[in-house]
Amino acid sequence: MAGVALTAEQRIDAPPGAVFALFGGSTGAGWLFDASCERVAVGAAVTMQAPLGGEPVAVLGRISAVRPPDPARPGRIELRLDQPWRGRLRVLFEADGGGTRVRIVADLDDTGLAWLMRRRGLPVSERHHAGEHLLGLLTSKSGPGSVFAASTENLAAMAVDEVNADGGIRGRPLRLVVGDDGTDPATGAAEARRLVRAGCRTLLAATTSATFVHTATELRRSGVLLVQTLMNEGGLGGELCMQLGERPADQLRTAAGPLMAAASGRRWFLAGNDYVWPQVVHAIARPVLAEHRASIVGEAFAPLGTRDFSPLIERITASGADVVLSSFVGADLVAFERQCHAMGVRERCRTLTLALDEPTRERIGDAASAGMWGVSGYFEQLDGAANAAFLRRYRELYGRFAPPVSSIAESAYEAVHLYAGAARRAGEDEPRTIARELRSCRAEFARGPVAVTGPETVRQELFVAEAVAGGFAVGPSG
Length: 478
Known about the structure:
seven-stranded mixed sheet, Alpha-D-Glucose-1,6-Bisphosphate, Chain A, domain 4, alpha/beta
């Protein structure tokens, strides 16, 4: 397939300079493609709805060039896209009578075109990879989860390059085959089946637990090894199903004390998305917080895709909570926390978010994320030569406009290396044999030592970090 360019436009009854100044204000769906960013400047993260091919597509990227409009030439904002494909998108501001014609032009390479065709339900031929060892990656290139998955595919691909530079899998190159769950369980299961048909006998899942649970059920009798890479609630481990990543109980026990000390209070309100992982987080929080002599003053769930959280935030304010345990994820977490900041919640209490990572914090923004805390096994700001070298390789490969690294994305990098080591030791491609090796392995990564001791048992250090301007202030490991 050859690359193509897709265009869309919108006319606004205001002069180009005024329209340009409003870009990123997110004043409502449909207004200037519902673009949202903290500032119009090179390096700023942008989320927008691009009506490409007749249907809105949520795209995530970073501003790589800015030219305000003037009488001699149109204005221009250029984005380097991260999701749902890597490429370039241009926003042009052209005078049109007494108003402005805002036009977007998105460049699609073969990968982006294949993604768009699958989204439209069109057939896409699968490449055959004779002589290669295939490894599937199921991630969220679109939907609310695309925020937390922004750098996942990059880091998985970086790990594959490193494995191949070290001889591949018993002399065969490792090849990554990627599927997009759209942050939807049914779509995820369908994409998993597509990866299996393409020849993948092991799938790494960097998705919500809702997708993972549905996919695990669908693949139960397939003979395929399914590995959940990121933080999760556990409980599904077995012969051909493994769950790596952080566990909520460990995260909560590590962070509860520091959060109550920072908030000078012990009253907690639990709020999150209405699916399996947040529900388990809240259930685990009750005994863990009781161990710390804390009280729970309220609880609420909201469906994935919610955008107006004001009734829930009013409940939080009325509860008198000192700490909010937020189990929202991705774009929902961004929307919820920005609204919390706007409605004054941060002036009254602190927020602990188990899924708070660098890409999500960045899109929440420096001002709105102040007073938020995260807890995980990796943050970009970790000290040490190993992390510095890891980040240097990432930037050299993907450039300064690549999305920041997070624990969620770094865990996919680790999973590729852990899998490759297990496949080499197994001496064969049989998933059950590889799984046995994977259930007892240890390696050193940017986050430090990681030891897998069972189908859902991982030992690693955890770090509590406070959101600050530009990133996180990371405390000692817990």
